[in-house]
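From the shared-data thread, chain only:
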Amino acid sequence: MNLSEFKRSLAKAKPPSGLAPALSALWWAGKDEWEKAHTIVMAESGKDCAWVHAYLHRVEGDLGNARYWYRQAQRPVATAPLTAEWDAIVEILLQGKR
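Structure, as tokens:
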């Protein structure tokens, strides 16, 4: 799956099967379902979910909390527009490059 296919899947009611939790959370975030996305990353550990967790707190406007999660993910604090960050995270996770 690539970024374009992932974006097209947002028209469906449920995320594609077999997505890793971080990608599943991004899928729900892409549908403006912040709570569902946040619930997923809260239940998981690992750097990928921490990265998505940071992004979600940026969306929420809680930059202090976002900075904490960027540190957990060992990623720099994002400054790009939210849509660009969402695209970048999805692409990197789909490619398996962490």
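The chain has one domain: 20-95.
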